[in-house]
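Module 6 notes. Inverse folding takes a fixed backbone as the condition and produces residue identities as the prediction. Think of it as a translation problem where the source language is geometry and the target language is the twenty amino acids. Below is one complete input and output pair. Work through it position by position during the lab.
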């Protein structure tokens, strides 16, 4: 990337930056009214995210000038550190600050450095946390309601298939009806994700604001697995979409230390199979769960996208001062 000395001005207007500041103040007031503690998490860590579909930005650190450097990782989310605080007895907490993801540029909704709002509520499950998220989002965006649909319901509504029961061949055939793709993959989730991102998500704009919940158990990530009303194992996980844009991702959090350890190791195996870097796993999270993290629900919300929606902006560079190309 070449530095262009002529590109010194912010990409967002000063009016938008003032409105952004007002929204950040509104978010902090929202949590102050609910007695949720604001915490600051480290942006650099000795450990990296395990998710094979997220790439951590690596930096080098020396204990003193001239000393041998070693890697640290810019955090893709404050989640691991916040859960260590929860296990230490913090109670309800939120973090409003920067997160970093490699390869997150080149589109109107992404920048490798972005602002994330993440919060955890001991004593709440995923459904109860959705209530609180709806309170925040409706107050910021001025919309009246947020609908709720299960993962199965949106697949049945827009594709007329059962995502939990459909065979791999059926999912492949359905995907090829809508997406031109030269791909061979025997992982059902690959095809479910393609159908969700390429077919269903664009249609969610019809619903204005909607929570999609009860994802397949295979997509649990760091959520608990439960049984739905039909006896189907599902992940206690949800995502919020507004005008078809993914805004938030939340869980009824996994608190089983051994299960967490196995999921981290499985992620590492997947990374190896995909030829991705093997980076240090956050084993301190496992230790925190062993010590006893309270039953809770948590969510991560993209603040830049929230501001985009509030201001009717078309691109992320319209709501941040200096995107990566100008940083």
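Target side of the pair, the amino acids:
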């Amino acid at each position: 990337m070449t530095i262009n000395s002529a590109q010194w001005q912010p990409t967002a207007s000063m009016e938008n930056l003032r409105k952004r500041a007002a929204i950040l103040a509104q978010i902090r007031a929202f949590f102050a009214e609910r007695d949720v503690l604001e915490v600051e998490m480290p942006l650099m860590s000795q450990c990296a995210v395990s998710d094979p579909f997220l790439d951590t930005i690596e930096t080098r650190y020396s204990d003193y000038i001239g000393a041998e450097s070693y890697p640290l990782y810019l955090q893709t989310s404050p989640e691991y550190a916040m859960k260590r605080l929860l296990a230490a007895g913090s109670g309800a907490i939120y973090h409003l600050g920067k997160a970093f993801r490699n390869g997150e540029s080149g589109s109107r909704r992404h920048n490798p450095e972005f602002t994330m709002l993440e919060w955890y509520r001991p004593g709440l499950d995923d459904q109860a946390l959705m209530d609180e998220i709806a309170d925040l989002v409706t107050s910021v965006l001025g919309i009246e309601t947020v609908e709720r649909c299960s993962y199965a319901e949106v697949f049945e509504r827009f594709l007329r298939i059962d995502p939990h029961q459909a065979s791999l061949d059926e999912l492949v055939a359905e995907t090829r009806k809508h997406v031109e793709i030269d791909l061979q993959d025997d992982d059902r989730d690959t095809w479910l994700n393609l159908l969700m991102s390429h077919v269903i998500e664009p249609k969610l704009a019809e619903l204005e604001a909607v929570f999609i919940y009860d994802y397949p158990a295979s997509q649990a990530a760091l959520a608990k697995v439960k049984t739905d009303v039909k006896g189907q194992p599902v992940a206690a996980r949800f995502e919020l979409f507004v005008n078809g844009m993914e805004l938030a991702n939340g869980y009824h959090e996994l608190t089983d230390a051994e299960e967490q350890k196995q999921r981290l190791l499985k992620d590492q195996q997947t990374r190896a199979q995909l030829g991705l870097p093997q980076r240090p796993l956050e084993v301190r999270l496992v230790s925190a769960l062993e010590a006893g993290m309270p039953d809770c629900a948590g969510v991560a919300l993209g603040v830049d996208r929230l501001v985009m929606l509030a201001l009717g902006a078309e691109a992320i560079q319209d709501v941040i001062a200096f995107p990566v190309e100008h940083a």
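Reference fact for the lab report: The chain has a mean pLDDT of 94.
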